[in-house]
Amino acid sequence: MYKSLILAILLLISCFEASCSITTGSRSLLRAVNTNAQDHTNFAIDLNSTSFDAVLKDTPATFAIVEFFAHWCPACRNYKPQYEKVAKLFNGANAVHPGLILMVRVDCAEKINSNLCDKFSVDHYPLLLWGPPSQFVSGSWEPKKENSKIISIDDGRTADRLLKWINKQMGSSYSLDDGKYENEHVLSNLSDPGQIARAVYDIEEATSMAFNLILEHKMIKSKTRASFIEFLQLIVAHHPSRRCRKGSANILVNFDDLCPSDILSGKKQECMTSGPITLSNSHICGSEVPRGYYMFCRGSNNETRGFSCGLWVLLHSLSVRIEDGESQMAFSATCKFIHNFFICEECRQHFYEMCSSVSNPFNSTRDYALWLWTAHNNVNSRLMKEEASQGTGDPKFPKMMWPPKQLCPSCYLQSPQSDAENQIDWDQNEVFKFLASYYGNTLVKLYKDKELLGEAGSDKAVIDDLATSTNALVPLGAALAIALASCAFGALACFWRSKQKNRKQRRSWS
Ligand SMILES: Cc1cc2nc3c(=O)[nH]c(=O)nc-3n(C[C@H](O)[C@H](O)[C@H](O)COP(=O)(O)OP(=O)(O)OC[C@H]3O[C@@H](n4cnc5c(N)ncnc54)[C@H](O)[C@@H]3O)c2cc1C
């Protein structure tokens, strides 16, 4: 009698704990579980029927594992540390192999989750299902259904066996002992054009990080406000991620309230940072970003690549998306943005010099994209020497004249005698074609490629969310949706501009 009373109390407490950790956004979820000191650290994310679709839709991971369990089931409680050992490798900003597999769990003993567990035919605990995250979104599973992209993990009873199953599935050789960056399977992006597909998430990360740094360092001042707005206009229309186009449009439309110019020109020299709606609580790429890690731009140690790589990729992806008539505006907005807001003194200085040396206005996408490519190669050329003499570069990603021949053979008219840029005879038409395809549709489209990401078929949720704007080649339906979205953002931008028309004149880059 006493025993069952104590059991019931314990059950209530554990139910309470479980429900406490369930919130709606995946980032807040990650934080909630990761800071649960009592339970050491939880790496697998607790989801319920309200958060399930949103988190699985949002994740950059290629695969997801969902554990369906019941908190009262002793086998599930015993299994938790095993599942956690594997989740630690893949989940969260400090994961050893981030962004590949999202590991979550759903407590089927919670009433709120009954329908969800029914849809996935949960008939025993724990049940582990594996598949592309998008397949779980509004999805279902039946044990005997043929050709299902979701499969049941039949041998995951211990951490070792679960990881062995994953390795077999992915053709990988991950180990529970892997440390961050050691035994790292960082692939060189030298010759695999498909790698750029993952960079869309890095562009989101870098955009969000740039925005946060600008706010943190109070860089929007009366002198820099206009250039911030110009860059915002550029990304509202042409950012490759819809999430960021939407977030930046929201900020742009409300910018006058969030950062009134009279505040800046008056006594107070920075945008409002307190009050119910502020720039600091606006999310430029949605509340789930930054995630805390890079994928395409991940260095082979903590010190290298990351943000600045993501920023370059953002700039190149914008350069191939603009229309001819926008090329001068894009050039000017980018130059001013880097000059005013890139928190690397040497970088902004060098970039400023390259911007200042341009004498004629740009009038085509091609010219601007090729100028940016050359500017980036100039930086590469300088850093190649610096990094070689100081040993500061990333050993797995040495600087080079880009694109290397393996990536774009037709970009080379003749074989380079050495890596020096002035000895490469570029076919600039081919280089532009390559840039437009690499930073345009390939950046997003290869999510569909089952070979590259190991998925069978397209990842529609990801494609929908990351649909490219303007110049990139996309299917007709997607193009229509993008056009509509772009029109909406354009209308918002026009509305904002009309509010601004009597305000300060835009200064042109000189
Ligand atoms: C605007 C800007 C200016 C910078 N200036 C300096 C500086 O003066 N001094 C300094 O120490 N660091 C500078 N940096 C940082 C530096 O350029 C690198 O970003 C950093 O060293 C990380 O290098 P990475 O190996 O990740 O490749 P990155 O140079 O960051 O390149 C990212 C990716 O872009 C692709 N890429 C490479 N070259 C080109 C190209 N020519 N055209 C198109 N795509 C290309 C490759 O896939 C590469 O992996 C600057 C960064 C930016 C964004």
CATH topology of the largest domain: Four Helix Bundle (Hemerythrin (Met), subunit A)
CATH fourth-tier homologous superfamily of the largest domain: ERV/ALR sulfhydryl oxidase domain
Q: Describe the global form.
A: globular
- CATH class of the largest domain, named Mainly Alpha
Fraction in helix: 40-55%
Please count the beta strands (DSSP E, at least 2 residues each): 5
Number of helical segments?
Answer: 20
Kindly report how far apart the N and C termini lie: 85 Å
Would you tell me the structural class of the helices and strands?
mainly alpha
The chain-level mean pLDDT equals 81
pLDDT < 50 runs, ≥5 residues = 3-39, 446-463, 470-483, 501-510
What is the correct CATH architecture of the largest domain?
Answer: Up-down Bundle
What is the radius of gyration?
A: 25 Å
Q: Strand percentage, roughly?
A: under 5%
Strand order of the largest sheet: 1-3-2-4-5
Instruction: List the ions, cofactors and other small molecules found in this model.
Output: flavin-adenine dinucleotide
Largest sheet: 5 strands, mixed
Transmembrane segments: 472-496
InterPro entries: ERV/ALR_sulphydryl_oxid_sf, ERV/ALR_sulphydryl_oxidase, Sulfhydryl_oxidase, Thioredoxin-like_sf, Thioredoxin_CS, Thioredoxin_domain
GO cellular component, one term: Golgi membrane
Domain ERV/ALR sulfhydryl oxidase: 309-400
